[in-house]
Design brief:
Blueprint lengths: L13 E5 L16 H5 L1 H9 L3 E5 L16 H11 L4 E2 L6 H9 L5 E3 L14 H7 L5 E4 L21 E4 L1 H15 L5 E5 L8 H10 L2 E4 L3 H8 L14 H13 L3 E3 L3 E5 L8 E5 L8 E5 L1 H11 L4 E5 L12 H12 L3 E5 L1 H10 L7 E2 L3 H8 L5 H12 L5
The structure holds adenosine-5'-diphosphate (ADP) and magnesium ion (MG).
C-alpha cells in the first residue's frame, strides 16, 4: 500500500513535490490551459498550511537534457504565484550548488519551483546520481504527478531510494482511488465505452477490459476494424488490416466471457475528412466504397445510450468520431450528454476525450476525469505503474520504521 501525504507529519518539513506542470504554451509562451497547475493546488496548500517548505519539480516539453530557455518553467512560476496568491521563487536549475544554496535559505511557508527536470539527461535515464542531487536537503518526497506515473524517470522512481520518506499527494490519491472504484472494485454493471483513432494503441486495454466489464461499447475509428473483421465493407475508413484477426478473436472472447459487446449500427460517412466534405448517414451495411466513417450515427447514439441506462459504473476513453470537425462531432457530443445523464459513477481518461467533455460543456457532471492520458491507458491495460510501484516499494521497505 502507498502511504499518503496526510498520513505523515509534514509540519515545518522540507517537502519535494513532483508535479506535472507540462502545460500547453502558445507561440508567445503563454499558458493556454492551466488545469495541471490547478490540479495540484490542494496538495500544495495542504503543505503550506502545515508551514512546510515546498519545493516543486516538473518537466516541460522535450529539451532532451539541454538547458534551453524556451522550455523554462518561468511562465508556470508566474501562473502558480497567481493561483496560490503567493510569491513563488524560480530556481535557475533543478540541481547544483546554486540550487542547494537557495534550498538552505528557504523559510517555512516558502515555495520554490525548480527549473525543468529534463534540462538534465539523468531525469529520463532514471539516473541515481541525479536523483540523489534532487533529494539533497529533502525530508519528504511527495509524488503528485500521475501523468508521468507510467515513466520510470529519476524524479519519479530513483528518488524513492534517497528520500527519507516517500508519499503520494492528493491528486495521485484521487486518480488511484477512482480507478480502483471503476476497474478493481466497481459497482456493477460496469460498462466501458472505448473509441479513438487506433485500435493498435488500445489493444492491451481492450483485452484487459474484457476480463473486467459487463458491457463493452466500441465506437470511433477503433470500431472500423471490428466492422471490417465482421465482413462488412467499410470503404475508405481508417482500418488496421493487420489486426483483423485479433479483432475477430476479441469478439469471440467477449461472447465466451458473456461480455455484452456493442458496435455502431449506423455511421456518418464522408467523402473525405474535411469541413467541406460531403456527408450522409448510413447503416453500417451500406457504406459506399469510396467514402469513410467519420462518426457514429443517430441510431447508434440511441443504442449506446440504452446500453448505458442501467450502468452503475462507466469508464470512458476515446471519442466516437473525428469530433474536431463540427460535422463529425455530433456522435461524441451526444455520448457526452448520455454518459453525463446516467446515475453511474463516471470515469473518463484520454486527452482528446477530455477536450470533448469541455466542448460539450459537461465536464463538471462527470465523477472523475483523469489528468493522465498515457498513465490512465496503462492502468486500463492492467499494468503496474512504475511511479506507484516505487511508492509501494518504499512503504514496504519502511513498514516498521514510520
Ligand atoms: P484519447 O486522446 O481520448 O485517448 P485518441 O487519441 O485515441 O483519444 O483518439 C482521438 C482521435 O480519434 C481524434 O483525433 C479523432 O479525430 C479520432 N477519430 C475518432 N473517430 C474517428 C474516425 N471515425 N475517423 C477518423 N478519426 C477518428
Ligand atoms: Mg489522444
Amino acid at each position: 500500500m502507498v502511504k499518503f501525504i496526510d498520513e505523515v507529519d509534514i509540519k515545518g518539513k522540507t517537502l519535494f513535490i513532483r508535479v506535472d506542470f507540462n502545460v500547453p504554451l502558445d507561440q508567445n509562451r503563454n499558458i493556454t490551459d492551466d488545469t495541471r497547475i490547478r490540479a495540484v493546488l490542494p496538495t500544495i496548500n495542504f503543505c503550506l498550511e502545515a508551514n512546510a517548505k515546498v519545493i516543486l519539480a516538473s518537466h516541460l516539453g522535450r529539451p532532451n537534457g539541454n538547458h534551453m530557455d524556451e522550455f523554462s518553467l518561468a511562465p508556470v512560476a508566474r501562473r502558480l504565484a497567481y493561483r496560490l496568491h503567493k510569491k513563488v521563487i524560480l530556481a535557475p536549475d533543478c540541481i547544483g550548488p546554486e540550487v542547494d544554496k537557495i534550498k538552505k535559505t528557504m523559510k517555512k511557508g516558502d515555495v520554490l519551483l525548480l527549473e525543468n527536470l529534463r534540462y538534465h539527461a539523468g531525469e529520463q535515464k532514471n539516473d541515481p546520481d541525479f536523483a540523489r542531487e534532487l533529494m539533497k536537503g529533502v525530508d519528504i518526497y511527495v509524488d503528485d504527478a500521475f501523468a508521468v506515473a507510467h515513466r520510470a524517470h529519476a524524479s519519479v522512481e530513483a528518488v524513492t531510494h534517497f528520500a527519507p520518506i516517500c508519499v503520494a499527494g492528493f491528486l495521485m490519491r484521487d486518480e488511484v482511488l477512482y480507478f480502483h472504484r471503476s476497474m478493481e472494485d466497481p459497482a456493477r454493471p460496469l460498462v466501458a465505452l472505448i473509441g479513438g483513432a487506433k485500435i493498435s494503441s488500445k489493444l492491451g486495454a481492450l483485452l484487459n477490459l474484457l476480463k473486467k466489464v459487463d458491457k463493452l461499447i466500441v465506437g470511433g475509428a477503433m470500431a472500423n476494424t471490428f466492422l471490417k473483421a465482421m465482413g462488412l465493407d467499410v470503404g475508405k475508413s481508417l482500418v488496421d488490416d493487420s489486426l483483423l484477426k485479433t479483432a475477430k478473436d476479441l469478439i469471440k472472447m467477449a461472447l465466451k466471457k458473456k461480455v455484452k459487446f456493442y458496435l455502431p449500427v449506423d455511421v456518418v460517412v464522408a467523402d473525405r475528412l474535411d469541413k467541406r466534405a460531403e456527408t450522409k448517414i448510413t447503416p453500417v451495411q451500406e457504406i459506399p466504397a469510396d467514402w469513410m466513417i467519420a462518426d457514429i450515427g443517430p441510431a447508434t447514439v440511441t443504442l449506446f445510450g440504452e446500453a448505458l441506462q442501467n450502468a452503475k459504473t462507466i469508464i470512458w476513453n476515446g471519442p466516437m468520431g473525428a469530433f474536431e470537425y463540427d460535422a463529425f462531432s455530433r456522435g461524441t457530443m451526444a455520448m457526452v450528454h448520455k454518459v453525463a445523464e446516467t446515475y453511474a459513477l463516471t470515469i473518463v481518461g484520454g486527452g482528446d476525450t477530455d477536450v470533448a467533455l469541455h466542448k460539450a460543456g459537461e465536464f463538471q457532471k462527470f465523477s472523475y476525469v483523469s489528468t493522465g492520458g498515457g498513465a490512465f491507458l496503462e492502468l486500463m491495460e492492467g499494468k503496474k505503474l512504475p511511479g506507484i510501484a516505487a511508492l509501494e516499494n518504499w512503504a514496504k521497505r519502511n513498514s516498521n520504521a514510520h
